[in-house]
Design goal:
Layout lengths: L9 H48 L2 H8 L7 H12 L3 E6 L4 E3 L15 H4 L4 E7 L2 E11 L5 E10 H40 L5 H43 L3 H11 L4 H6 L3 H16 L2 E5 L12 H21 L5 E10 L2 E8 L28 H11 L3 E6 L8 E6 L5
Parallel strand pairs: 6-7
Antiparallel strand pairs: 1-2, 1-5, 3-4, 4-5, 7-8, 8-10, 9-10
């Protein structure tokens, strides 16, 4: 048993894609902000720790006690007071050898510090995030100098990173709420947009629209042939009426001459176009043009000695270009109205050129004449022909273009190139 493959609708695909992009953008933005905020806050705490350390190092009594290895044990109390006032995790004071003279844990006194003190004991302030005996902390360290400027120890102050993380998380909670609201608004806007897209496409999926366009092309070909047949039917009916009248009135000689005249071949089509399909098309369009009081002629440069291999595409492009030209000539101011059609074989490619006596294409429509819905005339259902003609031509790897919008004594010139249309 074959299972029917589930097809996700275009609207749902568009909504899912927009939601994924919004989620990705908001997520990346939130992550970058969180990282930047965390780093910035850590640097601020480290700078604050250095400021506390410098304040203690500026006290001459602390420097004097550290220089003598704190014989009176006054430094632990001074360090603890500073730690409580600043909210720091620790305040550590060492002598010039890096041995602790003040530490939150009395058992650690007179032990070497857990991190390298060489940079500070060489006279440099430092800020960093390091792990020591009390855990990970943002630290600021500064040299401790006596009255003569000699380095007699260091002061190290640290703030617990958990405290920093807690502050960051509290602020990120607010940012996350705002980001969530922005994401929901974005998804809501995307849903409205895809809903409008569904209304504009009448709920049709891309494969369904493609099928409709293909059917439209076939229908255009059928319509063109139907119009040609209708024109021929009118012409044949008129000839039969003339023949019937001649015979009924006893003009047998004239009837015979008339039959010879109407059954003679049409030299222009036969001599320049060898394909019977194109011959029939040109003959039918010539008859249709005559009904509209427009003269349709083949240009002197016309030559097609090969056979048409893509009749649907050729009929679609030819029919649309000629129909548009006939209509432009019929409604145009020039009289007599005319359309000049050139067909040229180039290996397997068919080149088409159509020029008419109409008014041409307005300047403001030149750049968008091939856009669906754009037409030089008002009315519903117009503006699809040239778009369909270009689509049919591009299906063969060719194109349709507006060579000239208008000229001296003529209207628009449209050209088409159809590769692979001949064999």
């Amino acid at each position: 048993m074959f299972r029917r493959r589930y097809r996700i609708s275009l609207v749902r695909q568009a909504l899912a894609l927009q939601a994924a992009v919004l989620l990705l953008v908001v997520g990346l933005g939130f992550a970058l902000v969180a990282r930047f905020f965390d780093q910035e806050l850590t640097d601020q705490y480290a700078t604050r720790a250095l400021a506390v350390a410098r304040t203690l190092a500026a006290d001459p009594l602390i420097a004097q006690a550290a220089a003598a290895d704190d014989p009176g044990h006054v430094l632990p109390a001074r360090a603890e007071a500073a730690r409580s006032a600043s909210g720091a995790l620790f305040v550590v004071i060492t002598n010039r050898f890096g041995l602790r003279l003040a530490h939150p844990n009395p058992d650690r006194l007179y032990e070497p510090v857990s991190t390298d003190p060489s940079a500070v004991l060489n006279g440099h302030d430092t800020i960093s995030v390091e792990r020591g005996t009390l855990g990970l902390s943002a630290r600021g360290k500064t040299p401790l100098r006596d009255g003569q400027g000699r380095i007699v120890g260091e002061v190290s102050v640290g703030f617990k990173t958990d405290q920093i993380r807690g502050y960051v998380l509290s602020r990120l909670g607010v940012a996350a709420l705002l980001a969530g609201c922005a994401l929901l608004l974005g998804i809501g806007g995307s849903a409205l947009l895809t809903r409008r897209l569904k209304r504009l496409t009448l709920g049709l999926e891309p494969h369904e629209m493609a099928a409709l366009i293909r059917e439209r092309e076939e229908l255009d070909a059928v319509r063109t042939l139907s119009t040609a047949l209708r024109a021929q039917r009118h012409e044949f009916a008129n000839r039969l009426h003339v023949l019937s009248g001649l015979l009924q009135n006893g003009h047998h000689g004239e009837a015979l001459e008339f039959l010879h005249a109407v059954t003679s071949p049409v030299p222009p089509a036969d001599s320049t176009v060898d394909d019977p399909y194109l011959q029939a098309f040109v003959a039918a369009k010539t008859a249709e043009a005559a009904e509209k009081d427009v003269r349709l002629t083949l240009a002197d440069t016309t030559w097609v000695g090969a056979r048409v291999t893509a009749p649907v595409e050729v009929t679609t492009v030819l029919g649309i270009l000629v129909d548009n030209a006939l209509e432009a000539a019929r409604l145009g101011p020039r009289r007599p109205a005319w359309v000049d059609l050139a067909l040229l074989e180039d290996d397997t490619a068919l080149h088409i050129s159509v020029v008419d006596s109409g008014p041409g294409v307005p300047v403001d429509l030149v750049e968008k004449i091939f856009t669906a819905g754009v037409s030089t005339r008002d009315g519903d259902g117009r503006g699809l022909g040239l778009a369909l003609a270009r689509q049919a031509a591009r299906k063969l790897g060719g194109d349709v273009r507006l060579a000239r919008a208008a000229g001296d004594g003529h209207g628009a010139i449209l050209e088409a190139r159809l590769p692979g249309a001949l064999s």
